[in-house]
Amino acid sequence: MSKDVELFKKTLGRHVARLRKEKGFTQLQLSALIGKDFQSISRIEAGRINPSCYLILQIARALNVSVSEFFVSEGEK
Question: Can you give the pTM of this predicted structure?
């Protein structure tokens, strides 16, 4: 896999973890809200998987944030 894809997955994972924690959810709680197992959330946050657009949308809705929050560069936050 290209370095760009790996960087994207890691950055996306950091954003998901940060927003989840800001909202006060555990991985288990978030996974229940979106109908996935908590290992899926763990793998996303660790940058080990590239989630589908639909899964990103589900996570954003569960956290009550805009999808764009996952794509803000680290320096912009």
Answer: 0.89
